[in-house]
């Protein structure tokens, strides 16, 4: 127990030696004389002389004051429970190494708290600090700096969305050792290991020399990661991982699939069995809904590892198969459609037309909405069929054709390059040439990254006419340079031709796994328009949106670089290439933290196991006791004042009664818990005594002050222009405060706003259902247009959707022209704030309400929710000097006036309902309009 207590200023404890002096002073100082009123005749009874002794302070009062003095001395000494071993007792620089990779987001508050405490101790002791974030690369400064200067860097340190490459940090550790000799080392480590951990730990131990090393670990059992998505034929499977040995017997949760707008499409529960580190969940959705999934995540686990982004490569495209052969030849192992169906079935939805007529079959597939059509051994197309397929490709479809006996005599114009008549025979008694293998795939082509199979040989081939464009349109070739696959862009789609059959009569390619991979890449071209000269774009993919440490898509920073063409699968995640979306609005590629072949390995502290002290964040973190000690001293001070009052006769009690009263008061203070409802009673009383508006506290001082000033300014204008005189607005803590006292809550939403707990959101839901109205303001109308991504909304709007996820939100619509809000007090058609142009969203009225009675609703209902992006509070806010705090954009006084009128209409609508929709007001309104 005593070993777990430390002090930031232990020299102050020497003042405890003064306690005997304080005791002597208290002993020789008599208490205040007590005055007693008595009649004059009482003097006669006191004439007898007797021995008197001076009055002394009671022993318990002296003990109380000595204890009070001791507590003040101890508080000034800075008591800390479980101080870090590398605290102020050490000398020399403090090396503060913080793991801030993707797994750090799971326990970042605890990690940040410990780092701040260590920095405070170093600053109190005057020790310099070297701060290193393990996910920030090897270019960080390693020279010791003052703790005050390092504090800003620590505040800016945050979890990253990529893994920690500890092997790359070895040179950084060596530079640290060359720059300074540490007095102590604190490594705030994560639980996820990986390659290079042993080398990093060995280098850290060597560079630290004899300095003590303390390693902090979280032991977080709830770390869950998503590693791969498989959109199978009967459902989408998602693979989940957890650390081996770091979790309790069972871990349960939910995986949510979301569309590009952030709305939930499906939820699937998961549970890790005892000892299991991997599990799988399935989304049983129709193919059309599965193709709309753009993101899969685990609510409550805000890390980049708990997110899987999905692009069109994971979609199950509808592929139509048509064969030019007759039905009696369409048998397994003899039909080209059999090989095509087996090849594309694992990743696409295969459709075969019911009609055997080629023209009817093509019409059925195009009308059915397929993305890719494969024609096996189909020769010249008739005019109407060629026209249908031409329109299909120009609209973005992919037409893949295969050679065969019917293409030998000639083909139509829907091919990438002109074809020769007759097939080239390789091998056999009548040929001088041997069967040809495949040539390596071009690294800049669509088949880049595929392995060239050694067991594939081609015995027959349809040749293309030589031309200047043939090399550019050849995507795969044989070893002798003749084309195997040619392609070109056609409109918004693609024409692809295999110069061999889809079965094994001309080559063994359909028996190879490379055939499956080639078709997968070709089907992935659906929806991707051709680049320059009708070819697949080879330009680098610029970053579109990247994941931050909390798993949210944000704008890429200046250090993020484009992905080289063809390097999507081999990209090394890091500061230059974090997980996210790369490409353009028309087409992008999703880069995820973990893939289907990845796993989670726990961190092994082998090289440091015997050298370092292992500490847990939650149970071993330093705790500052100064507040507790000063609180106890305050209680003793109150008891001392009470004792003096009693002993002086201020309460009319005798000495014995006074002692008993003081003892009972002290006992009551010790055993009685602090009433948790005292603050709530004060809040409830203040909120209930007057009509006032509330604003949700966000934790951001600037945002909260703007909300307060805005509602205060609106209250002032209401008092000047209406009969309502609201009191000053109050900040509302959704977790603690009661919402029922406020007719209107203003809730500003920022892109980094934290979602309240489920209990708080249940209070919000009950508030709206019972007649309360919440005005949500994303305040980003002026910037949202430049920050809307392919996922459909600005960051603040996406955050609002995440906050409202799970609530029973009614359908919304922009305020209609005849809504009560347009005439609740002023006649309005627009609702500007500090910004203009954004609509004000309210609950949509039911479809059965006609235009004439549209505002009339049962029970004078008021929309429980309003949403804007125009920054209303910024337009209403008035500073202490009586001037508006923020200019409107544009700086138009009329826009400010309209913003004030908007606020007054909102308040009147909230307080009075839809009484303005009463027909008795129509003549007066028409008269004012001059109609």
Automatic annotation (TrEMBL):
Pfam families: BatA (PF07584), DUF4159 (PF13709). InterPro entries: Aerotolerance_reg_N (IPR024163), Class_I_gatase-like (IPR029062), Double_TM_dom (IPR011933), DUF4159 (IPR025297). Residues 5-79 form the Aerotolerance regulator N-terminal domain. Residues 692-911 form the DUF4159 domain. It comes from the Bacteria. Keywords: Membrane, Transmembrane, Transmembrane helix. This is LytTR family transcriptional regulator. The chain crosses the membrane at residues 6-26, 59-81. The keyword Membrane applies. The keyword Membrane applies. NCBIfam families: two_anch (TIGR02226).
């Amino acid at each position: 127990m005593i070993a777990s207590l430390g002090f930031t200023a232990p020299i102050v404890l020497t003042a405890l030696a003064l306690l005997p002096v304080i005791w002597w002073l208290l002993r020789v100082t008599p208490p205040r004389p007590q005055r007693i009123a008595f009649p004059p005749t009482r003097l006669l009874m006191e004439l007898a002389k007797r021995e008197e002794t001076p009055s002394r302070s009671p022993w318990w009062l002296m003990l109380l004051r000595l204890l009070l003095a001791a507590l003040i001395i101890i508080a000034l000494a800075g008591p800390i429970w479980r101080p870090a071993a590398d605290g102020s007792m050490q000398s020399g620089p403090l090396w503060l190494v913080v793991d801030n990779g993707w797994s750090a987001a799971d326990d970042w508050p605890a990690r940040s708290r410990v780092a701040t405490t260590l920095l405070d101790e170093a600053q109190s002791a005057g020790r310099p600090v070297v701060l290193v974030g393990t996910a920030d690369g090897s270019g960080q400064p390693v020279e010791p700096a003052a703790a005050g200067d390092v504090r800003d860097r620590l505040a800016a340190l945050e979890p990253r969305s990529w893994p920690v490459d500890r092997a790359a940090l070895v040179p950084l550790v060596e530079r640290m050792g060359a720059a300074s000799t540490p007095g102590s080392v604190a490594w705030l480590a994560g639980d996820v290991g990986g390659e290079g951990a042993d080398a990093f730990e060995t280098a850290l131990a060597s560079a630290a020399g004899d300095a003590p090393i303390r390693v902090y670990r979280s032991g977080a059992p709830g770390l869950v990661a998503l590693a791969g998505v498989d959109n199978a034929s009967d459902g989408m499977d998602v693979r989940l991982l957890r650390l081996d040995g770091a979790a309790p017997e069972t871990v349960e949760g939910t995986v949510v699939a979301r569309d590009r707008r952030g709305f939930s499409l499906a939820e699937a529960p998961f549970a890790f069995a005892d000892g299991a580190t991997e599990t799988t969940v399935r989304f049983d959705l129709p193919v059309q809904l599965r193709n709309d999934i753009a993101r899969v995540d685990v609510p409550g686990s805000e890390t980049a590892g708990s997110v899987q982004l999905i692009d069109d490569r994971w979609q199950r495209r509808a592929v139509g198969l048509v064969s030019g052969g007759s039905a009696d030849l369409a048998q397994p192992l003899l039909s080209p459609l059999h090989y095509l169906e087996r090849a594309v079935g694992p990743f696409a939805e295969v459709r075969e037309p019911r009609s055997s007529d080629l023209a009817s079959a093509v019409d059925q597939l195009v009308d059915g909405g397929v993305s890719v059509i494969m024609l096996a051994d189909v020769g010249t197309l008739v005019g109407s069929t060629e026209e249908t397929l031409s329109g299909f490709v120009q609209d973005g479809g992919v037409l893949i054709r295969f050679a065969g006996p019917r293409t030998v005599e000639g083909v139509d114009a829907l091919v990438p390059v002109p074809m020769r008549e007759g097939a080239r025979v390789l091998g056999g008694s009548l040929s001088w040439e041997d069967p040809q293998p495949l040539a390596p795939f071009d690294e800049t082509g669509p088949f880049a990254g595929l392995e060239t199979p050694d067991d594939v040989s081609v015995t027959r081939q349809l040749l293309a006419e030589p031309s200047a464009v043939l090399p550019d349109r050849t995507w795969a070739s044989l070893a002798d340079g003749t084309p195997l696959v040619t392609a070109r862009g056609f409109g918004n789609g693609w024409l692809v031709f295999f110069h061999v059959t889809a079965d094994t009569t001309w080559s063994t390619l359909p028996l190879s796994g490379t055939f499956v991979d080639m078709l997968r890449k070709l089907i992935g071209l659906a929806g991707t328009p051709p680049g320059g000269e009708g070819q697949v774009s080879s330009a680098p993919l610029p970053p579109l949106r990247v994941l931050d440490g909390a798993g949210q898509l944000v704008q890429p920073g200046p250090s993020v670089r484009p992905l080289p063409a063809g390097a999507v699968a081999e990209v090394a995640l890091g500061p230059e290439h974090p997980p996210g979306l790369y490409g353009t609005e028309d087409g992008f590629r999703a880069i995820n933290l973990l893939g289907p072949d990845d796993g989670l390995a726990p961190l092994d502290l082998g090289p440091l196991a015997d050298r370092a002290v292992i500490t847990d964040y939650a149970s071993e973190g330093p705790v500052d006791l100064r507040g507790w000690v000063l609180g106890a001293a305050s209680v003793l001070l109150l008891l001392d004042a009470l004792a003096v009052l009693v002993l002086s006769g201020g309460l009319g009690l005798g000495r014995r009664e006074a002692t008993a009263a003081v003892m009972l008061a002290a006992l009551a203070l010790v055993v009685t818990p602090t009433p948790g409802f005292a603050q709530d009673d004060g809040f409830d009383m203040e909120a209930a005594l007057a009509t006032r508006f509330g604003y949700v506290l966000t934790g951001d001082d600037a945002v909260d002050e703007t909300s307060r000033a805005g509602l205060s300014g609106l209250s002032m204008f209401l008092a000047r222009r209406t009969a309502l005189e609201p009191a000053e607005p109050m900040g509302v803590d959704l977790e603690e405060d009661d919402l029922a006292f406020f007719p209107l809550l203003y809730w500003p939403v920022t892109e980094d706003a934290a979602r309240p707990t489920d209990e708080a959101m249940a209070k919000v839901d009950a508030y709206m259902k019972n007649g309360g109205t919440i005005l949500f303001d994303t305040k980003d109308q002026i910037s949202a247009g430049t920050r809307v991504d392919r996922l459909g909304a600005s960051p603040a709007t996406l955050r609002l959707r995440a906050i409202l996820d799970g609530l029973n939100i009614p359908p919304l619509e922009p305020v209609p022209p005849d809504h009560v809000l347009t005439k609740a007090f002023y006649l309005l058609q627009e609702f500007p704030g500090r910004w203009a142009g954004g609509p004000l969203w309210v609950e949509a009225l039911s479809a059965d309400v006609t235009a004439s009675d549209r505002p009339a609703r049962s029970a004078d209902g008021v929309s429980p929710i309003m949403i804007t992006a125009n920054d209303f509070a910024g337009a209403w806010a008035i500073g202490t000097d009586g001037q508006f705090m923020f200019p409107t954009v544009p700086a138009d006084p009329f826009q400010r006036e309209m913003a004030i009128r908007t606020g007054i209409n909102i308040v009147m609508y909230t307080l009075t309902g839809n009484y303005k929709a009463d027909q008795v007001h129509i003549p007066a309104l028409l008269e004012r309009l001059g109609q």
